[in-house]
């Protein structure tokens, strides 16, 4: 087991980058356009450095010889690591700098969680390819829906401010609301595809290990409910033009089902019941 220092360093770096993004893109006293190239270089290079530091801390906690340890703290931390990576990659194609100011504080907290809630024992069946693929796709799906949830909350705040006619200087720097909405549903579509693959790979893994298609437990039920919620949202968007508050409610409801499906059960078993 490694000490708290690698996690603390990662958290402090995320916090520092969050302050930078806030001052650069949300503060009323944001830097002048003349400094844009220098700031662009900081944003393009600083985030990969953060990801490398955080990734090194995570790998030290999760990989031990041939075994794989993923406690609730590791899972949340890995999901946020992927979320920051996805945001950084998305920033190469979209204007996401202002949005990254929101995810950095969340990532700072998540970076500390493996030290607070360490995994007690290795995961079983990690030698199986079906399980590895299932785990990877589930993590990507969680990361995408984490981003979608943060994104939709920011959209709701922006829409409310627009209706009131008072828009802070920081919010004026964000992309137009319609652009953000288009990006939101692209993220949800990507997350829905990954969630679908997660459910399918879960069936394959269950057949390989237990000899039956799936075990009907709370994790399976909440995962299917989440898939239905996001599927209904995408259906309503395509055929009925759902947007605004409807999109906010359905996105957050689907994300809550996902949290209950995996992280909620993991927290109860590992933290509250202490079974590891």
Radius of gyration over all CA atoms, rounded:
20 Å
Helix content: over 70%
Largest sheet: 2 strands, antiparallel
Average pLDDT figure: 80
The unreliable regions are none
Question: In CATH terms, what is the fold-level topology of the largest domain?
Answer: Four Helix Bundle (Hemerythrin (Met), subunit A)
Query: Looking at the structure, what is the overall shape?
Result: globular
Kindly report the spatial arrangement of strands forming the biggest sheet.
1-2
Order of helices and strands: HHEEHHHHHHH
Structural class based on helices, strands and sheet pairing: mainly alpha
Number of helical stretches of at least 4 residues: 9
How much of the polypeptide forms β-strand, as a percent range? under 5%
Second rung of CATH, namely the architecture of the largest domain: Up-down Bundle
The count of strands amounts to 2
Plain-language structure description:
Helix content is 78%, strand content 1%. Helix 5 packs antiparallel against helix 7 and helix 8 (218-240) packs antiparallel against helix 9 (244-272). It is globular. The mean pLDDT is 80. It contains nine helices and two strands. The chain has a two-stranded antiparallel ribbon with strand order 1-2. A hairpin with a 2-residue loop joins strand 1 and strand 2. It folds into two domains: 1-123; 127-276, Four Helix Bundle (Hemerythrin (Met), subunit A) (Up-down Bundle), CATH 1.20.120. The chain is mostly helical. The longest helix is centred in the middle third of the chain and has 36 residues, at 129-164. The relative contact order is 0.11.
């Amino acid at each position: 087991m490694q000490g708290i220092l690698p996690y603390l360093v990662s958290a402090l770096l995320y916090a520092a980058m969050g302050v930078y993004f806030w001052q650069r893109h949300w503060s009323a006293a944001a830097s002048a356009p003349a400094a844009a190239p220098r700031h662009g270089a900081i944003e393009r290079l600083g985030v990969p450095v953060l990801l490398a530091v955080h990734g090194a801390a995570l790998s030290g906690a999760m990989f031990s010889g041939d075994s794989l340890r993923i406690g609730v703290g590791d899972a949340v931390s890995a999901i946020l690591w992927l979320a920051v990576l996805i945001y950084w990659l998305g920033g190469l194609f979209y204007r996401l700098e202002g949005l990254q100011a929101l995810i950095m504080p969340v990532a700072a907290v998540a970076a500390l969680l493996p030290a607070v809630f360490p995994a007690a024992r290795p995961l079983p069946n990690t030698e199986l390819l079906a399980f590895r693929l299932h785990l990877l796709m589930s993590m990507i799906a969680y990361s995408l829906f984490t981003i979608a949830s943060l994104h939709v909350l920011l959209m709701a705040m922006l829409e409310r401010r627009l209706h009131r006619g008072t828009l802070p200087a920081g919010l004026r720097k964000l992309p137009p609301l319609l652009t953000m909405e288009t990006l939101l549903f692209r993220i949800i579509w990507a997350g829905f595809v990954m969630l679908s693959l997660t459910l399918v790979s879960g069936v394959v893994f269950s057949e390989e290990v237990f000899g039956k298609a799936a075990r009907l437990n709370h994790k399976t039920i909440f995962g299917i409910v989440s898939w239905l919620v996001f599927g209904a949202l995408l259906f309503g968007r395509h055929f009925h033009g759902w947007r605004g508050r409807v999109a906010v409610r359905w996105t957050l409801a689907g994300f809550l089902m996902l949290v209950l499906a995996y992280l909620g059960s993991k927290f109860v078993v590992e933290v509250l019941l202490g079974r590891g």
